[in-house]
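Two folds, back to back.
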Amino acid sequence: MKRFRTILAAGLFAATASLQAIAADYTLNVNTALTPEDPLFKGLEAFRDTVAARTDGKVEIRIFPSSQLGKDEDVLEQARAGAPVAVVVDGGRLAVFQKEFGALGAPFLASGYDGIRKVVTSDLFADWVKQLHDTAGLQVLSFNWWQGERHLLTKKPVASPADLAGVRMRTPGAPVWMETIRAMGATPTPMGWTEVYSALQQGVIDAAEAQHPATLGAKLDEVITHITKTGHINLITGLVAGAAWYDSLPEDLRQIVSEEALKAGDIASYGTQDALSSIEAKLTENGVTIAEIDTTVFREATAPVYDMLGYGDLRDTLRGIAAQ
């Protein structure tokens, strides 16, 4: 039944796209959980505009913020079924199709954007992209959409894993995220991003973890009191479409879409980097206490996650690429 619904959704999206974009030969509906205020959104707008310009309007990119097209996992299934949709998604959610992608969301892999960018533009990563295309029917347009380092969002001060004992913390449902949060001392609670505000407000969960732009964009400063800067996950994400949609493009248009996705990812990522200090100031102004701590205890607590999920050898390889 789930497969039937996915195929039906794909058909509906295809029909809608053909009706709404008669002037364009190809349309791609891009879903993101982020709001238009997020710095990353500027990159999506640049992607939309430059693709339209370089293809003379033959390819139209349409952007849907705040998960208007559904949860990331659902949109990925729609893309696999042939719908003209794409989603800004993390490696953890792709790991169910291609295990190696999960390592990108493993704890304390790299700091900042420049190092992780080297990983997602490497020859090794290109091999993963090809395998994902061939085996899962998904096409990475680019994977250099950096959203920042993720921190702990709580209603009490946190300095060590012991402070998170019994704390129900929202996290995406991917194994690498779940095990990281569990290793940090909290009880991982999978939940869609758009549900987090009300869940914190109503006490369904006690805490969350996120990067500064998403925290401010979702107004979580209204329902939490403390941010502990652990930087436990360096959130690099990708713009992922269906392989069938991508392969339907003529070769010249495929090249344009991929090139502009990479350029737009840099616009989004460096824009995010430049905005972090002002966002942090705004969060503080809104009454949130932001604490800098020694993260050694969290690094030590999460170190076993790599071997637990089979990423031990890959960790060293990826850290080596990031450090080049």
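---
second:
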Amino acid sequence: MSERVAAKRILVTGGARGLGAAIARRLAADDAVVFIADIAREEGEALASEIGGYYFDLDVSSEANWISVIAEIETGFGGLDGLVNNAGIATSKGGEDIETIEIEDFNRIFSINVVGTVLGCKHAIPLMARSGPGSIVNLSSIAALIPAAFVVSYGASKATVAHLSRSVAHHCAMRGYGIRCNSLHPGQVRTDMMNGIIERVGRDTNMGTEKAGEVFDGQIPLGCPQEAEDIANGALYLLSDESRYVTGTQLIVDGGMTLSN
């Protein structure tokens, strides 16, 4: 590997599985010091051991948890150079369109996807400003950019993350912190979360999971499946010095899905 983030201290939330795990592995392969933060301790500790990183228990919706983790990183490692706010959920117990949505589900999704991202930025920025320069990557989605009537809570939360990222970028630039902030927008990566969405759409439309998967795949202009590594490579770029002049922007990695919407 090219060591594009060598020695950079980078925290990845939701890093125990899915996209977070792929990002953690990619960063470690380029010699970053990777902190995996998650509520899945067994998986997180196993991954940390595999890549030579460090695991922290973190419920991203808890401000007390954030304060504790950031303090541990400062005490143990002296600073923070990168933050990937990846932790997120999409599942609901009730409906996901605007007429059947359960507000309890809406609030739960926002507490992880939005509040978790806000708290991550709030508590990482002061440490990054003292030890920087630094880079923040907030995981959004193409659901933030195109109508997503079948995942209205998730889409709204990710649109909020995209807007928040621009505000954070502007705040850090105006304060002279040397911290960049960008949003990263995956398309369809077959993580457990994406598979859950496909299964629910297949069930709700009576087309079945297999047919629903074919419909989703048919929306990708490049015509090939997207891999978690595609998103990890995008995060690597935004965290590396190669993107030193990139802030407040949206990196869309979707195989062209947004081109036809």
